[in-house]
Structures are given as C-alpha cells and as structure tokens.
Amino acid sequence: MAHHQFPVQVRWTGGRDSVGEVTGDYIQHKISIPSELGGVGVGTNPDELLVSAAASCMTISLAATLERAHLSPIAINMQSYGEAQFEQQRFKMVKIVHKPEIIVDQLSKKEQIKKRLSQLIKIADQNCMISNSVRDNVAVMTEPTIKIQPSKSSSDSKTSI
C-alpha cells in the first residue's frame, strides 16, 4: 500500500487573539481565529482550509470522473460552504455543501452528463480523499448544475476577402 505525506508547519506565538502562519510545499498563509468566532479574522482559518480542501478535492475528482467518462467540460466552477455548529460545548463542522457549475459547449454533452450526473457525482465523491476522510463525521452534499457556453467557432472570427 502506498503512503504519502503532506507536511505543513504552523508557527503561532501568543494567545487566541494572535496571528500565526501555516506553510507547506505550496501554501503560505496567515491564520487566526475567524472574526465570526470572536477572533481577529486575519488571513485564513482552519474552517476555511477544511472547506477549501473539500471543495478543491471534489472539483479535481469530478473533472477526472467526467474525463474518464469522455464528458470533459469546458470548466467547473465550484462554490462550497461549510456549516459549523456549537454542540456539547465545542464547535464542529457538521456539513459541507458543494455547488459545482459544470460548463459544457454543446447541448448534446449537457444531456449526456445530465443522464449520468447522479452516478458521476457519486463516483467523484468516492474518489475524493477529503470526502473519504470526513465521511461519517461531516455530511457532504453536492448540488450540481450544468450550463452551456458555446465555444467560439470559426464563424465568430473575422474573415478577409
């Protein structure tokens, strides 16, 4: 079985109203407690990072799933949010909702995706490492839409006589 490590470092000095920094191979951001939770709200925060990880993982997984089904879209625009609740004297992420907008260039491709979308979303979710990591602890829901954006054709370009 393959094992992969994803190292990050966090530097924090002071109490709850301080600002720290998280760094990794490709990430470098200031972090603090969000202002909505009584913190200073500078940079990002663990809650936003969790939802970002889930959203980016699901987007990449959905793109790969569509590609394997020979239904590659022009683009996927993902809007996601996490919902946290205060339960039993602590905060907990209870739900992450993904709202991917799948953009295609043909009505026929839209119809093909639409027919298989439920199964494709399920496959993408099953292949997403973050979904697999939070499953049974955080509800993950996906509410997709499909939009047609015609590609630029040669008739759109200027021709000279």
From TrEMBL:
It comes from the Bacteria. Pfam families: OsmC. PANTHER family: OSMC_OHR FAMILY PROTEIN (PTHR42830:SF2), OSMOTICALLY INDUCIBLE FAMILY PROTEIN (PTHR42830). This is SACOL1771 family peroxiredoxin.
